Amino acid sequence: MIKLKKNYIIGTRSSNLALKQCQLVKEKLQNKFPEVEFEIKEISTAGDRERDKKFSEINGEGIFVREIELALLAGEIDLAVHSFKDLPTELPEDLEVAAVIDRANRHDVLAGAEKKLAELPEGARLGTGSLRRKSQLLAYRSDLEIVPIRGNIETRLKKIKTQNLDGVILAAAGLERLGLQDQITEYLSTEICLPAARQGAVAVEIRKESTELKKILKEAEAQTTALEVWAEHAFLKEMKAGCHAPLAAEAVIEDQKLTLTAAAGELDGSRIIRRKVSTNDLNLNSVQKLGRKLAREIKAAGGAEILASLQNN
User: Fold this and answer.
1) What is this enzyme's class at the first EC digit (predicted)?
2) pTM (2 d.p.)
């Protein structure tokens, strides 16, 4: 029998999307454990406070999670809800991701544009802060001008007018969770823009010592989704690159088979290395092993050279 406290505090960022995701986790837990009170605590992060700077200027790895993790380590909160994509592949020693609670549409979209991507005029200006998106978009259309932008979803949509953009590239998950589907011009094919590893997934982070809490989170976990996400995570971790590197990965389970597709690209789109692997062995160890295997294949095919050139710039 699981022994629970009467009250648990959930930490999250204060953006509309973060709060929406946190509310989703809270409701799932509240439905399973109605006798327990779950309280949401908003925490400001460096990524929220320094929106005018590029990721490279503020050490982009972990900028949306550090303050939340410090609160977790200090015991100020009991669990933390994150967009899994924001989490570094290496966590503090005393913390762990206990569960993947939900995953929305993991694909990228063109938003706020008057035409689809293929129909935009030559030299069209598209906004994105993602090196992964920049790389793949330029591989598809080298004439595009990619304009670096940051901020929450609402801010980035506003920049279409303030920065004279023809559109922005965003994650479908955020727009759908916020009810902003009417802003979507086109869902991008994965052949054009393979999503980021773990995109659209909601992760719950806890202290490793919180064994009882881990048990209740596992009961709320989406197991098939978790296997897909952990396969992508293993790929990213083996690549030894930050979550803002020009790397993409998507795992899909269909007919009792997991297929993992991943890519690494030059920032100017001149070279995209893309590979695919599959397994019928649907357990955590096997899918993580598959992710590591694919990472080694992509590094050997030139991915290591691409990442090294980034670090040298």
Assistant:
1) transferase
2) 0.92
